[in-house]
Amino acid sequence: MMSKSRCDHGVCTVMFRVFRSSVLNFKGYNNLSVELVIALQAFVSSETYPPNEKKLSGGRSSYGSGKGRSHQGHTKYGFTLVKGKANHPMEDYHVAKFVQYHGRELGLFAIYDGHLGDKVPAYLQKNLFHNILKEEEFWTDPGRSISKAYERTDQAILSHSPDLGRGGSTAVTAILMNGRNLWVANVGDSRAVLSKRGQAIQLSVDHEPNTERNSIENKGGFVSNMPGDVARVNGQLAVSRAFGDKNLKSHLRSDPDITSANVDGDTDLLIIASDGVWKVMANQEAVDIAKRIKDPQKAAKQIIVESLNRESKDDISCIVVRFTG
């Protein structure tokens, strides 16, 4: 009789890591459906380990796809995240959920696009909304509370730099209050786009080195514009505002741009995405895709598929929030 044998733990661990690396660095998107890529990446994400392996990351890895809805209205959301073609771990993290807070419903949505590691975006996923909501003035002055929480969160990241490393992250956050009032804030180039009657309205501001050159130079930094490359702060970072980045912080800003919008009968949907989308797609193109697909999860997937078809190489994250229909 053939006996069953268990794989030696060391061998299993090596085999798992080889398989995991192959999947997470997979580059054949054009020949494989995005659904299968998402499923494979989710299976081998940092929440999946061989026996006795421990998770070292500070947050919940953002892979895969999902959806949800408001408990008090018709608003629905869906999200999809896919690792890019770079040879490093997934650095995009997200938040997408409805919560009850002090007797009111809040929709919390965010994309955090990390660089030089995933520790800062993982920290933001766990802490930024918590810090915003605990501000005493949140219900009376949301804008001021968001601004203060962004600043305090960045200071906390910098004070924990030995644990969180030298990396950083963009952030775009959206808070939907009682289904009617939308507050959007951002640092970096992750973007939020609203659709009203099918027309795209950008709510966030892309913080790029060339547009904030004066601020960078006044702080003693410089902006490089090398042929074939994007503008970079001190020849390194392609955004002019970010969380973390302790080595560059003296030349960067971390204060957010903040805007508010009323959600009314003309408001169709909100798209929040990392620059893996926006490098290859205009705001109106993304809205046109999402508008014709009623299921927001399928809409987010289709935006990802189109981004991949246009050869986006970065990590790609997309949340679609549908207010009507």
UniProtKB/TrEMBL annotation:
Single annotated GO MF: metal ion binding
The record's catalysed reaction(s) read: O-phospho-L-threonyl-[protein] + H2O = L-threonyl-[protein] + phosphate; O-phospho-L-seryl-[protein] + H2O = L-seryl-[protein] + phosphate
Coiled-coil-forming residues are none
Q: Which UniProt keywords apply?
A: Hydrolase, Magnesium, Manganese, Metal-binding, Protein phosphatase
SUPFAM superfamilies in UniProt: PP2C-like
**Necessary cofactors:** Mg(2+); Mn(2+)
Q: Which Pfam families match?
A: PP2C
User: Which enzyme class?
Assistant: hydrolase
Annotated PPM-type phosphatase domain ranges read 76-323
Q: What is this protein called?
A: protein-serine/threonine phosphatase
Q: Which organism is it from?
A: Rhododendron simsii (Sims's rhododendron)
